[in-house]
């Protein structure tokens, strides 16, 4: 149904044009279990839209005004005229008592009187012009007067402008936003955990600006005397009892309570469980409660059990109530895959601290969800390496694109085999370019790109394009036909291929042979964390830095300290090889 046919006729054409204009722009699906509130001025058409919107979203609908009249047995017109303050209190309390996940149409004054009650909801303003507002309310004699001391015309103008100013102070979405989000798959709500020894209010606001939607406050990490009232103004709070019981003041501020008697029930298994054992742990769940099932990833070859556990729990309890998580050093790709159907997605705000091993970054979850698709379980891309916090690949390539930051001693062959049904391609970076080449039986000694095909993984080294772009730039600056390469890793193999193509001579200097560089041009391939050999001297050489971001700055400082001049070619290398990667992934099966 065309929602815009039900709104102010003066705005319909403009809204439809905006919907068409924004149809291909990034947009997130609605989080599971979050209440959608239709708000705005009186006579905007909120109650009229309620049924069609709820039907399209597949959620129950509730008209708050009608609910209040039914519960209290009083007409709103008489109630507001007799005691407006008690009506507003009842309105607020009734809204807060509603179960989550509904579509709720609220009264015309709700947005201006109770903005704090809307924290954690998706609040949609039903659009209305003043001209239509005035026409409808002049014709409707059933609504209560709000300024009886004024003429009706004067009251309408005064209330309109007063509420317009108050509405602008509340974070809301437009009806076009909602229509676009309704076309995307539902997604998990993004949860970050308050770290120990952190200022809670500052962290909550920082997390909100990064895209988090819920702040978990654990009783084992945060002093129990912390006041959660200002924290809850930034983000809805999920209070989690881990050891100590939560104080009553925390429970009062909690939008969600993870406890034995709470609306989130958690199981943290100490060892991997079979599917039957995992499902048996959840024989029942109280009405309206969420379940959070956490277990170690365990043997990679058995990782598929987590998806079957999730499927069976969703089948029993419903998608908006189930969260299944894996933990461990290799858990990040599995958490990303499970998040497609989870109700809650537990994430890390920054790489420096995570509440559990394997958590993804909230920024990655935000970015991936903006291009969410219904086949996000089987058509993902990713970058495999360590460390990856600085990588720009996730921001450049098609979404969803995951960082697989795994330990350097990972059995990459086993990991790639397990992930093949889910990922259509990978970028590969240090320290895995050579191990991956060996694992997939590549003909070249190092690869940086994998593409899924019918038989397994096709392997490529698009670093050759990056190396050619960088060597060409270096030759333009120096005129050199002979270049020293510092290091003999995967990047050096790409440089050898590119040099042969360009007719350049390469001199490879390893850590064992390091000493004074005798050429006027060089390329630094060692990762930033690697200790630089003491005998290395770069006097007078122009040295290409093929890293970027913070690692590039560390390398540049090392070059200067040894008498060389750094030349930042990381972005040029990166973009050249990434263009080739993109074209290869587009051919994946």
List the helices and strands and how they pair.
Layout: H1 12-21, E1 36-39, H2 46-57, E2 61-63, H3 64-72, H4 76-82, H5 84-96, E3 103-105, H6 110-113, E4 122-125, H7 130-139, H8 152-167, E5 173-174, H9 175-182, E6 189-193, H10 200-210, E7 214-218, H11 229-234, E8 237-240, H12 248-253, E9 254-258, E10 264-268, H13 275-280, E11 290-296, H14 304-317, E12 322-327, H15 332-339, E13 344-347, H16 362-369, E14 380-385, H17 393-396, E15 401-405, H18 412-419, E16 423-428, H19 433-439, E17 449-452, E18 457-460, H20 463-478, E19 482-486, H21 490-502, E20 505-509, E21 521-524, E22 542-545, H22 549-561, E23 565-568, H23 570-585
Parallel strand pairs: 1-3, 1-4, 2-3, 4-5, 6-7, 6-13, 7-8, 8-9, 10-11, 11-12, 14-15, 14-16, 19-20, 19-21, 21-22, 22-23
Antiparallel strand pairs: 16-17, 17-18
Structure description:
Helices cover 38% and strands 18% of the residues. By secondary structure, it is α/β, with parallel strands linked by helices. Strand 6, helix 10 (200-210) and strand 7 form a beta-alpha-beta unit. The mean pLDDT is 92.
Q: At the first level of CATH, what is the class of the largest domain?
A: Alpha Beta
Number of domains: 3
Report strand %: 15-25%
Q: Determine the CATH superfamily of the largest domain.
A: Aldolase class I
Largest sheet descriptor: 5 strands, parallel
Calculate Rg over CA atoms. Answer: 29 Å
Low-confidence stretches: none
Mean pLDDT, to the nearest integer, reads 92
Helix proportion range:
25-40%
Question: How would you sum up the global shape?
Answer: elongated
List how many beta strands DSSP finds.
Answer: 23
């Amino acid at each position: 149904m065309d929602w815009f046919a039900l709104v102010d006729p003066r705005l319909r054409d403009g809204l439809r044009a905006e919907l068409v204009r924004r149809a291909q722009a990034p947009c997130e699906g609605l989080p599971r279990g979050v209440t959608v509130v239709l708000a705005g001025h009186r006579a905007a058409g909120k109650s009229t839209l309620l049924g069609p919107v709820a039907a399209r979203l597949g959620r129950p609908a509730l008209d708050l005004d009608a609910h209040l009249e039914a519960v209290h047995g009083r007409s709103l017109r008489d109630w507001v005229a007799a005691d407006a303050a008690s009506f507003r209190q009842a309105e607020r309390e009734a809204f807060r008592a509603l179960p989550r996940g509904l579509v709720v149409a609220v009264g015309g004054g709700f947005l201006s009187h109770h903005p704090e009650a809307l924290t954690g909801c998706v609040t949609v303003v039903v659009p209305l012009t003043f001209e239509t507002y005035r026409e409808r309310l002049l014709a409707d004699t059933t609504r209560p007067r709000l300024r009886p001391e004024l003429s009706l015309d004067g009251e309408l103008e005064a209330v309109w402008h007063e509420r317009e100013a108050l509405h602008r102070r509340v974070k809301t979405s437009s009806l076009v936003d909602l229509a676009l989000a309704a076309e995307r798959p539902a997604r998990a709500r993004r949860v970050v955990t308050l770290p120990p020894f952190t200022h809670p209010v500052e962290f909550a606001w920082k997390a909100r600006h990064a895209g988090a939607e819920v702040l978990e406050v654990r009783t084992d990490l945060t002093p129990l005397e912390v006041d959660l009232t200002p924290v809850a103004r930034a983000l809805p709070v999920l209070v989690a009892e881990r050891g100590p019981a939560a104080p009553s003041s925390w429970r009062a501020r909690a939008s969600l309570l993870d406890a034995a008697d709470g609306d989130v029930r958690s199981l943290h298994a100490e060892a991997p469980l079979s599917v039957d054992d995992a499902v048996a742990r959840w024989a029942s769940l109280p009405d309206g409660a969420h379940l959070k099932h956490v277990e170690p990833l365990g043997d990679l070859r058995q990782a598929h059990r987590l998806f079957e556990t999730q499927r069976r729990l969703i089948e029993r309890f419903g998608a908006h109530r189930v969260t299944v998580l894996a933990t461990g050093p290799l858990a990040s790709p599995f958490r990303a895959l499970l998040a497609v159907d989870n109700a809650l997605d537990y994430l890390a705000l920054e790489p420096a601290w995570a509440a559990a091993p394997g958590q993804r970054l909230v920024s990655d979850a935000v970015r991936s969800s903006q291009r969410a698709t219904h086949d996000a379980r089987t058509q993902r891309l990713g970058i495999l390496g360590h460390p990856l916090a600085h990588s720009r690949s996730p921001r450049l390539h098609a979404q969803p694109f995951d960082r697989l930051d795994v330990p350097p001693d990972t059995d990459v062959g086993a990991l790639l085999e397990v992930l093949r049904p889910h990922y259509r391609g990978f970028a590969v970076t240090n320290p895995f370019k050579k191990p991956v080449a060996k694992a997939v039986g590549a003909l070249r000694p190092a690869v940086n790109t994998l593409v899924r095909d019918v038989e397994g993984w096709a392997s490529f080294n698009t670093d050759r394009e990056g190396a050619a772009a960088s060597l060409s730039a270096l030759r333009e600056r120096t005129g050199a036909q002979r270049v020293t390469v510092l290091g003999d890793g995967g990047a050096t193999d790409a440089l050898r291929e590119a040099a042969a193509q360009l007719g350049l001579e390469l001199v490879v200097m390893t850590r064992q042979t390091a000493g004074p560089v005798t050429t006027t041009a060089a390329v630094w391939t060692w990762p930033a964390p690697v200790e630089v050999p003491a005998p290395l001297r770069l006097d007078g050489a122009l040295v290409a830095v093929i890293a970027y971001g913070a690692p590039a700055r560390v390398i540049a400082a090392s070059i200067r300290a040894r008498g060389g001049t750094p030349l930042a070619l990381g972005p040029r290398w990166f973009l050249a090889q990434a263009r080739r990667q993109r074209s290869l992934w587009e051919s994946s099966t």
